[in-house]
Design a protein that fits this description.
1011 residues; mainly beta; 22-stranded antiparallel barrel; 5-stranded mixed beta sheet; 10 helices; 51 strands
């Protein structure tokens, strides 16, 4: 055969091989959609079983894949969706797939800063809380919804005031004077979470987070270690709480109506002496002082002719009601969620009420196969009718506790006693009932959260997102105290008649963030997820106030009618933050996980040389359950070891602190200006070094899940007003003075105890955090809190002790021979002086947590939630007045006074009562008590009507429920509530109960109906 023939022979053979290969392959096409709403699912992975050959669904959920001839098995998988295996026969060329959400814990989607991932791929310490966990708890704000739900998160409600302050700490206190509250983010918007009003009432603030409706929340993710929160850099040291609100789905529009109504009352009333008991006690105290009680008007059968229960007089049974209606739906291009709600809570104190009107609108629209746009709007209006409380001299609750029972709030004509009334107790002739009913302390709050975003797919797996957002806050305070009240009447004695205050404040934050994300998969074993972005934040605040007095009558209550308008003030400040951040996550074979995160922040709150800070973190994880030696161990569903190390910061100290400032002064009758604050150009960030090791385990297909973390955090460069010698002309200078450490262990256990006709699950979280002041600029003890009785303060900040340390004399008991207090003579000089002050305890718990059981059977569901704290001390500072063995005769006394020493040989812990004696009432550990408690935080019981019943009523689902909060408390604390804290949110002065209104217990019923 010649060359020409051989060429054509080879050519024909080659073409035959190609034809044969083509005959052995075919193309399969299809579309992947969500089972819940038929929406397209872009990004779903489609792989031929046993090979690395695969593809990914496009933006419309469509895919195209070449497969061998014959029967093949295709695997469909995506984050948060249950994977599917579909066997395709040789004659089938179109395969459309419906994919359902995977409800297992390992496949839940977790928000991790500017991105999201599956729970099984998380290598940081993150706790996720779904809205179902707090749906039946009538919480006011989103921070309160976290209480007892997450390991490492300590939340205390400072008082029982509606809309009042909430203390939130994640892994302890990291700062002395800067904010210790975490960063709250709602739908990508960092929000203002401070007080709404400009005045705190006796140490108690109101709460901006109470304006946001928790019923609009879909989920909450708490970021706790550097791996999770370093992406927030200078704002992440105190933890980050990411709130995701509800959004629409691609399905028929559903409408949900929710109605709740109940009653409230305080968890415990203080036990006080009646009129006869008090007169007997006061007569004894005066006689012990060698004086005649009759000369003080203390005559048995006469003085105690009236017996008023002042607590009963100022309290009532409150009414709580909440109504919400929402609609959600959409199609494959546009989805929406719309809601409106009203919450009205009548406080247990007279004239105290909190009302909130809120609405939310979330819209998502797919403009094209590459472009998606979205918008969110959350608007809330509130009206808070406050009353003075806690440690106010003229507070309602505090005044009622102290008022003498042998006086009445009303005269014989039914009129309130007021200033100038004869024979009325207190200063200045104070009537707690009048103080509740007559003044007007009204705060109007407005909060607007809004944002628009656009997502553009530049190419497959490369996306760009830009978002513009605003957090707008406005408050107006309208206050008037008539001449018949303590302050209004007191001012009358110096020329005033009534007293009015008007305050307005506006704070808004503008945010622009731009994020580029890229996902790369190589050989189905190497996976890269990268993120690069920048963020610009600007905050502006404005406020003004004015006060007036000498009103023509109590019928004229606004400043315009005041005879004397006192000088007001106005203020404006601003701050900015510019940031660049990036993140790289890599996993090999779904087995070895690595992460690198960094943020570079520049803040206007610091001088030019200290303005920028760098906050990196490294993390790694090992999914041990994917190793060959464990793959055949059926007990283990997932086992992962993870660790992280990195740095975060805290710049929340207020504006212009690094600058030297001047202020107006008056000297010898002449006005001028003088230095007000020393500059410190070296003022810099607080920085927290964080190390974390954790283990995640899921056993028996999720029947038992365990998460354990051990962490060690060190915060240095503490921002603090450091005391300096008075000879400088200044008392302090803002500086970076020391270090604080937090070391702890967190444990979360979730079990499915039964999952047949009856489903029973249990969740337990337990935390131990050890806080310690590692170093200060000098070793001088710094005091915070109250002072008195020759002792420098109730709380001390000193090296080697935790924040919240109590300082005072050590009480050793009562001398049975004399009835006088015995104190520890620390220096052995034979005298009790301030030099004998020492550490007497601390407010930090040894551990805290929450315990929840949920049971469902057919249409019934039951939830029992306990919250607990152990090992913390609470200073019952009220007892310095209520068990006042110095007996000043101006205040009622606790029933604890009945245990007082009365004669030689009495063994008791309450010294004798002697009028004018102060020695027995020195500030000491006598007033320090065990503040541990176990509280039944919530008990709820519900019933969902059978489907055929609700359909007959033209409704989709109907659920009826009853709920109770703070129903029962086990504690050794003798006060009314071991959880309260007079100085709301204080870091240094924690755990003080000084006439603080206890929390309320709520009993309510409700119904949820969907159409």
């Amino acid at each position: 055969m010649n060359k020409f023939g051989r060429f054509w022979g080879l050519w024909l053979l080659f073409m035959g091989l190609i034809h044969s290969a083509q005959a052995q392959e075919r193309v399969i096409t299809g579309k992947v959609t969500a089972e819940s709403d038929n929406s397209p699912l872009p990004g779903v992975s489609v792989v031929i079983l046993g090979t690395t050959n695969g593809t990914t669904a496009d933006a419309e959920g469509n895919y195209r894949l070449s497969v061998p001839s014959g029967t093949v098995t295709l695997i469909y998988s995506f984050i948060g969706l249950a994977p599917q295996e579909i066997t395709v026969g040789p004659n089938r060329s179109v395969v459309n797939v419906l994919m359902a959400e995977n409800t297992t814990e390992l496949n839940q989607v977790v928000v991790t800063g500017y991105n999201q991932t599956q729970r099984k791929d998380v290598i940081g310490s993150i706790t996720s809380i779904k809205s179902e966990k707090f749906r039946d708890i009538p919480v006011v704000g989103i921070d309160q919804a976290l209480q007892g739900q997450a390991a490492g998160v300590q939340i205390s409600q400072s008082s029982g005031t509606p809309g009042g302050g909430i203390s939130v700490r994640i892994r302890g206190n990291t700062s002395i004077s800067a904010s210790n509250r975490p960063l709250f983010i709602v739908d990508g918007i960092p929000i203002y979470d401070g007080p709404v009003s400009g005045r705190d009432f006796g140490g108690q603030n109101d709460n901006a987070l109470a304006i946001i409706n928790p019923q609009d929340i879909e989920s909450i993710d708490v970021l706790k270690d550097a791996s999770a929160k370093a992406i927030y850099g200078s704002r992440g040291a105190n933890g980050v709480v990411i709130i995701t609100t509800k959004r629409g789905r691609n399905n028929r529009t559903s409408i949900t109506a929710d109605v709740q109504r109940g009653i409230t009352e305080i968890v415990k009333r203080p036990q006080l002496l009646n009129a006869s008991q008090l007169v007997e006690l006061q007569r004894e105290a005066v006689q012990n002082a060698g004086q005649d009680p009759n000369k003080f008007g203390l005559i048995k059968g006469v003085t105690d002719g009236i017996d008023t229960d002042w607590i009963d007089a100022i309290l009532r049974r409150g009414v709580l009601q909440q109504y919400q209606i929402s609609a959600a739906g959409g199609d494959d291009r546009t989805r929406f969620y719309l809601s409106g709600s009203v919450r009205d809570e009548e406080g247990v104190q007279l004239n105290n009420r909190f009302t909130r009107y809120s609405g939310a609108l979330n819209i998502d629209h797919r403009a094209s196969s590459k472009l998606k746009v979205g918008a969110n709007l959350n608007l809330s209006l509130s009206q808070n009718d406050r009353v003075k409380g806690d440690n106010f001299l003229d507070g309602v609750y505090s005044g009622a506790i102290k008022s003498l029972p042998y006086y009445a709030p009303y005269n014989e004509q039914g009129q309130l006693y007021g200033p100038g009334s004869p024979n009325y107790p207190g200063f200045p002739n104070f009537n707690p009932v009048g103080q509740a009913l007559l003044p007007r302390f009204r705060t109007y709050g407005l909060k607007l959260l809004t944002g628009v975003n656009a997502d553009y797919e530049i190419m497959r797996n490369l996306q760009f997102r830009t978002k513009f957002s605003m957090d707008y806050n406005n408050s107006e305070e309208d206050q008037f105290e008539p001449s018949s009240t303590a302050i209004g009447g007191f001012l009358q004695s110096v020329g005033g008649r009534g007293y009015g205050v008007y305050i307005t404040a506006t704070t808004y934050t503008l945010i622009n963030s731009n994020v580029l994300t890229y996902y790369l998969s190589l050989n189905e074993r190497h996976h890269f997820n990268t993120l690069l972005g920048n963020e610009i934040i600007q905050t502006v605040g404005r406020s003004s106030d004015v006060s007036g007095r000498v009103f023509p009558s109590d019928d004229f209550t606004y400043i315009t009618s005041a005879g004397v308008v006192d000088a007001g003030s106005s203020f404006r400040d601003q701050n900015g933050l510019v940031s660049f951040f990036g993140e790289v996550k890599y996993d090999f074979d779904d087995k070895y996980l690595f992460g690198l995160t960094a943020r570079y922040d520049g803040s206007s709150r610091f001088g030019q040389n200290r303005r920028f800070g760098f906050f990196p973190s490294l993390s790694a994880g090992w999914r041990i359950s994917q190793e060959e030696f464990l793959k055949d161990v059926s007990v283990i569903s997932d086992l992962k070891l993870r660790g992280s190390y990195g740095f975060t910061g805290n710049e929340r100290i207020g504006n212009y602190q690094f600058l030297g400032t001047w202020a107006s002064v008056t000297y010898n009758g002449a006005a001028g200006v003088a230095p007000n604050r020393l500059p410190n150009a070296q003022l810099q960030w607080e920085r927290t070094r964080e190390a974390n090791i954790g283990v995640d385990a899921s056993l028996w297909n999720g029947r038992l899940s365990v998460t354990a973390d051990v962490y060690s955090n060190l915060t240095d460069n503490l921002l603090f007003a450091e005391p300096i010698p008075a000879t400088t002309g200044f008392g302090t200078i803002q500086g970076n003075i020391g270090q604080v450490t937090n070391k702890g262990v967190e444990l979360t256990i979730s079990t499915v105890n039964m999952d047949r006709e009856v489903r029973w699950t249990t969740d337990l979280n337990l935390t131990q955090n050890i806080n310690n002041v590692a170093s200060l600029a000098n070793q001088d003890t710094l005091y915070r809190g109250y002072t008195g009785n020759g002792i420098s303060g109730t709380n001390a900040i000193l090296e080697g002790q935790p924040l919240g340390t109590f300082w005072g004399l050590k009480f050793l008991g009562v001398d049975p021979a004399t009835g006088d207090a015995i104190y520890h003579d620390l220096n052995g000089d034979g005298q009790i002086t301030p030099a004998d002050g020492q550490v007497i305890g601390n407010a930090q718990p040894k551990f805290f947590g929450g315990f929840t059981n949920r049971v469902s059977w057919k249409g019934f569901d039951l939830s029992v939630f306990f919250q607990f704290m152990y090992g913390n001390k609470t200073l019952n500072f009220s007892n310095t007045t209520l068990v006042n063995t110095g007996a000043d005769l101006e205040n009622n006394q606790s029933v604890d006074a009945l245990r007082r020493w009365r004669q030689e040989g009495d063994v008791t812990d309450v010294p004798r009562y002697v009028f004018g004696n102060t020695y027995n009432n020195f500030h000491s550990s006598r007033f320090l008590e065990d503040g541990s408690y176990l509280r039944l935080k919530n008990l709820s019981f519900g019933y969902t009507l059978p489907k055929n019943w609700s359909i007959k009523a033209k409704m989709n689902t109907v659920r009826l429920f009853a709920s109770a909060t703070n129903l029962w408390t086990l504690t050794r604390y003798s006060g009314t509530d071991p959880e309260v804290s007079t100085l709301d949110g204080s870091t240094a002065a924690q755990g003080i109960d000084f006439f603080t209104l206890p929390q309320v217990k709520t009993m309510m019923v409700g119904a949820t109906v969907t159409f």
